[in-house]
Amino acid sequence: MPVVVVESPAKAKTIEKYLGGDYRVLASFGHVRDLPPKDGSVDPDADFAMKWEVASDSKKHLKAIKDALKDDQNLILATDPDREGEAISWHLLEALAPALKKGSEVNRVTFNAITKTAVSEAMAQPRQIDQALVDAYLARRALDYLVGFNLSPVLWRKLPGAKSAGRVQSVCLRLIVDREMEIEAFKPREYWSVHARLATPGGDEYDATLTSLAGAKLDRYDLPDAEKAAMAVSAVSSRDLKVTGVAAKPASRNPWPPFMTSTLQQEASRKMGMGAKACMSAAQRLYEAGLITYMRTDGIDMAPEAVHAARDAIKAKFGDNYVPKSPRMYKNKAKNAQEAHECIRPTDMMLSPDKLKVSAEDQRRLYDLIWKRTIASQMEAARMERTTVEIASPDNQVGLRATGQVMLFDGFLKVYDQGRDDDDAEDSARLPAIAEGEAAKLVPKAFEPELAKARDKGGDLPDAPATQLAAPGMLADQAAATAGRQHFTQPPPRYTEATLVKRMEELGIGRPSTYASIVTTIQDRDYVRKDKNRLIPEDKGRLVTTFLVKYFPRYVSYDFTADLENELDEISAGDLVWREVLGRFWKDFSKALEGTSELRITEVLDAIDEALAPHLYPPRPDGSDPRVCPLCGQGRLNLKTARSGGAFIGCTNYPDCRFTRPLSAPDGEEPVGDRVLGHDGGDEISLKTGRFGPYIQRGEATEEQPKPPRASIPKGWDAGSVDLEKALQLLSLPRPVGNHPEDGELVEAGIGRYGPYVKHGPKYANLPDVDEVFTIGMNRAVEVLAAKQTRGRAAAAAPLKELGDHPDGGKIQVMNGRYGPYVKWEKINATLPRDVTPEDITPEQALELIAAKAAKKGTRKPAAKKTAAKKPAAKKTTAKKTTAKKAATKKADDKTDE
């Protein structure tokens, strides 16, 4: 029977079910070959010849495919329908070539969705491997290798503590660093706005904003301070007001197009706080289950049959009014074959989220998002009426405006509205019935609740006349019917994963299959941290970016990177020769590398020190020189490197002055250096900074005591706030809590390698908070120790969840192991993927994991029972194969890393 090769076992199982017994479907587990991580894998002097190596964990997968080809030489390569999938098929063909006899039939098939119809149609329309797409992959892979394996060593040698550089990841990091520098350089500007609460003759209230003063239109900064705002408040409150105009205009909003990769990642981040990697992982599972179309695409068009299916679903669920007269068609400018794919959509439009039989919460939520966006994209527009009311005084000295809208027909908004990142939502306030010429009466006490709330928050009061009310950030007339609000311009917001992906897309940097891995890589390498969903550059990331901008400006240029991406797209379209593109790139890049060969670390540090000076040495409140050492008052501060890697700020008077501080001190934190905190029992207690951070020391090293008592400053403590009392507390650890009530053995509390703990004999239990080490009593200590014991080995034997019986007999259970939860059946233990929790796993998923693990062990049945003497060897083998499984799973999920 013909051999069909796909990428994942889950996909193989689904497709084998569709094709029936006439085909044998096997999985490659992602890429089977890659460039060895060593010099010479790409040789520019040999016309960019590339040396490929079969991964150790891929050899058994290739062997299984070769064994299957012994029975039938008809090979069908059915990997994913993008450039990366085309490359995997090419690698498979190259690796399998020795096993194929002359005249063997090899075909390539692609399908955009794993449904019976899509698979059957694809099998009926085989083709050959698209060499242009393969060439684009080879060019991209070679470029990433040449940059990574040539630029990273330069970083290691010239910038201690740096980890690596990448062709696209370094540009992505620069985006985050540049945004942070914008924020730091931003100077807020004050301005005020004035508002009034008005009422119609019938008593209905509405809000209006001052738009003109003294007969002139007000611009944003025309009320720059409280004094001008107070004058404007007086001008409004002292005049009669009348409605001079009412204009109601119809408006409509059309739906958003269906998802492509980048917009799916952005919306998953906005609405669900889901990172790009987690989003793509969940989407991969939905695709493999046949629930959505392929999730790596730049296309927003939808197949005609899918459009009609969506319209039918809308009609059935919401009625004829929500179906537009003609189908909505969405198109974008496709640059290459990959971008000609369909949008991301459900394969069955009638399968609404409430009918979905998927247990994993992240997959359910993502499917809900995709289904709603797809359905909404084919729905009728939302219709509304926007009303603008103009109010003025008889002398035309003041003019106000009230705006609002009324929803006439919700249309697509009944199902879905796209989230926003940092933009203000449009004004959707409802207005009462208002007639032109009627009086607009000020409403007394309208702003009293807001004024009271502002006072509760505290802060400085604005300078307001005695005749007006004041609160922090506000002022109002005596009747509290008119109020001024203080505002400050805001710096550009830090990137979220959603806005970063959006910005990369706008600049043309990276491609759909790379966004998730790029954003993940810069976080994994500690160049960037995520705080409240915002991406903040670490000092290490700043140093790397500054170094690259200084010595390799072209290769972290947004325009250069985008132009190179366009050339790669032209290669995939067959318009450029990939080796010629590489040749031009390497000629200039190798010269840039040579230009750094003579650089000394001190030169690099001086250059970075100068470039980062505004960040490293911000102005001091007293106006003194920020470079003067605050400890000795004589030395100058400059950038230094640590033995353990990384960098810090130190004094030029070292070793006489041992002042040090990290590159970035938290707001309000005073930098610290070596200093004496006080004396205890004749010993000097001092705060010092070592290679592993700040620590407390009692006395000084002597011949009799070369290692005096020391205690590290706990993580989370501010070294600048450590005084003698805290220092003595740290030096007194471990602290005796008392004797255990059951056996009388001493219970102690301390801080160890893994954080704060309590100890009872040989038993340890972690404490959640460092400060608890100094306050914990016996009752709490016994409780913590008992809780740890119940989580120990004795309780691990109980299953977390029972999943029923295996078709071949025997119970399937979810267990809690040393390295996390796993599925157990007989002698097969299969680790749960990171995105699947014990509570969510289904019997079907468990059977899949067991089958994959059994296949890796070379059997589909539980291993025969072995004698006690052979058990250790079996255990060792299992552990080794578990590692291989994890590597294979990661390889299949993370296709591209730039």
Automatic annotation (TrEMBL):
Do the record's keywords include Methyltransferase? no
> Which cellular component terms (GO) are annotated to the entry?
chromosome
Q: What is its EC number?
A: 5.6.2.1
Q: Which reaction(s) are listed as its catalytic activity? A: ATP-independent breakage of single-stranded DNA, followed by passage and rejoining
Question: What is one Pfam family matched by this protein?
Answer: Zn_ribbon_Top1
Q: Residue ranges of the Toprim domain? A: 1-114
The active site is formed by Y294
Residue limits of the Topo IA-type catalytic domain?
130-593
The Gene Ontology terms for molecular function here are:
DNA binding; DNA topoisomerase type I (single strand cut, ATP-independent) activity; zinc ion binding
Q: What does this protein do?
A: Releases the supercoiling and torsional tension of DNA, which is introduced during the DNA replication and transcription, by transiently cleaving and rejoining one strand of the DNA duplex. Introduces a single-strand break via transesterification at a target site in duplex DNA. The scissile phosphodiester is attacked by the catalytic tyrosine of the enzyme, resulting in the formation of a DNA-(5'-phosphotyrosyl)-enzyme intermediate and the expulsion of a 3'-OH DNA strand. The free DNA strand then undergoes passage around the unbroken strand, thus removing DNA supercoils.
The entry's family comment says: Belongs to the type IA topoisomerase family.
Q: Which PANTHER family match?
A: DNA TOPOISOMERASE, DNA TOPOISOMERASE, TYPE IA, CORE
- Binding partners and assembly: Monomer.
- What's the name of the protein? DNA topoisomerase 1
Q: Which organism is it from?
A: Paracoccus homiensis
What's the source species' lineage?
A: Bacteria, Pseudomonadati, Pseudomonadota, Alphaproteobacteria, Rhodobacterales
